[in-house]
Amino acid sequence: MVIVKGVKIVKFAYADPPYHGRGKIDYGRYHIEAHLWDNKETHLILQEKMFDEFPDGWAMSCNPRDLHWIVRYPDETRICAWVKTFAQIRGVSVQYFWEPVLLFRGRYIKKRKPMVLDWMACAANQKRGLKGSKPDKFNDWVLQLLGFEYGDDLIDIFPGTNSMQTAVAKYSDSRHTQHDTPRE
């Protein structure tokens, strides 16, 4: 956290890496090192890096089937849920219609209104951008989970379609109009 003119500016991160075991299959044609995400240790190293470089807070999307091993800091990580109201039907008997979002810290906002829930529901993107790209409502929710405010910094570690940076810009623009004069 940095204080500029009496305002606390924080640095957050969001990561949406390829699901474990899906790096080469889903993203190999886009990135030469996509196969690295087929290794569990790469996901754990990412969390270690975010823990060190983003102590103010971070969020990370992951696969529900990986929760038993992927939560690196169980006492400090909250598991939030993106419930998909529409998603691709898979060849399994119980469908996956949710995605965990690991939440580490974030800005504490006392008596926050409106409240931010640890789950949200919206449809997944269909045939829009890269596989796994997130809808606008999801990105807005992640910013709310982190307590993102005008002037904060958010690093999208896997920018893909740049939808998170678009959400940050939109969120910052809407907040900027509420703060026409700089806070001092």
User: What's the CATH architecture?
Assistant: 3-Layer(aba) Sandwich
Tell me, rounded to a whole number, the average pLDDT.
Answer: 88
Strand order of the largest sheet: 7-5-6-4-3-8
Order of helices and strands: EEEHHEHEEEHEH
CATH class label? Alpha Beta
Q: Compute the gyration radius: what is it?
A: 17 Å
| Strands, count | 8
The biggest sheet amounts to: 6 strands, mixed
Q: In whole angstroms, how far apart are the ends? A: 17 Å
| Shape, per Cα inertia axes | globular
In percent terms, what proportion of residues is strand? 15-25%
The helical percent reads 25-40%
CATH fold name: Rossmann fold
Name the CATH homologous superfamily.
Vaccinia Virus protein VP39
Which residues sit in consecutive blocks of at least 5 with pLDDT less than 50?
179-184
Q: Structural class of the secondary structure composition? A: alpha/beta
User: What's the tally of helices?
Assistant: 5
Q: What count of domains describes the coordinates?
A: 1
